[in-house]
Amino acid sequence: MKKYILFDHDGVLVDTEFWYYKAGERALADIGLTLDKDQYLRDMNQGLGTWAQARAAGIDEQTISRQREVRNDYYQEYLRTEAIEIEGVVEALAELSKYVRMAIVTTAKRADFEIIHEKRQIRQFMDFVLVREDYKLSKPHPEPYLAGLKRLGATKEETLVVEDSSRGLNSAVAAGIDCVVVYNDFTKAHDFSQASHRIETLDELKDIILNVT
Q1: Which of 50, 77, 123, 175 could be disulfide-bonded to 24 (CB atoms 3.0-4.6 Å)?
Q2: For residue 213, is pLDDT > 50?
Q3: Which residues have a Cβ under 8 Å from the Cβ of 134 and sit 6 or more positions away?
Q4: Cβ density class 28-45: b for 16+ within 10 Å, e for less
Q5: Directed axis angle between helix 166-175 and helix 143-152, to 10°?
Q6: CA distance 184 to 8
Q7: Alpha carbon distance 103, 127 (integer Å)
């Protein structure tokens, strides 16, 4: 049986990825550019994001830097005002906490994470949280999940990662940790062939935990 779960955050525990996209779309619209969603999703899969399209359109780095700050402000506005709950997450975590220790390993920035969890009940079930500022190399590099293992004092074999993107899956695989992919409409076209399990909701994790030997 697995003893530990390392959760990705955005798209797994809270429904934020659409709003991150919308914030970038709005920031580019401010300078007369249209953010192509399909290309954005392909870029995201490669560890890129909004600004790849801006650079391809010839936008200079000074403008990109300015609009990145604008995007960040828009995103935080959405985090405060939009419905980003994923139904059943808190209940699933409460049940899982009877069997495993859990933590979050996220590429979210600390400021955004703090806004998201001001009034939510998710953090109470976690031993710790690693945000983007807590490690040097981001997913798909294995460093974030290796840092999570070290902090838990866990072995790879004892641990399960829960992700929703191929970038996160590749990070877990590179770290040598079994990875469960939970369905997210925003990442449904990603390549998840290396996942140990595919699930629709976090409710299914309990059976995986109890049946894994």
Answers
A1: 50
A2: no
A3: 147
A4: beeeebebeeeebbebbb
A5: 60
A6: 12
A7: 5
Return the residue matching tokens 């405060």.
80
Query: Distance between CA 204 and CA 208 in Å, rounded?
Result: 7
Polymer length of the chain: 213
pLDDT in tens, 180-210: 999 998 888 888 999 999 999 999 999 999 8
| 58 burial level (CB within 10 Å; 0-12, 13-18, 19+) | exposed
**Nearest to 130, CA basis, from 138, 118, 120:** 138
- Average pLDDT, rounded, for the chain: 95
**pLDDT of 14 over the 50 cut:** yes
Query: For the whole prediction, is pTM greater than 0.85?
Result: yes
| Cα gap 20→77, rounded to integer Å | 11
| Residue appearing with tokens 């290796």 | 146
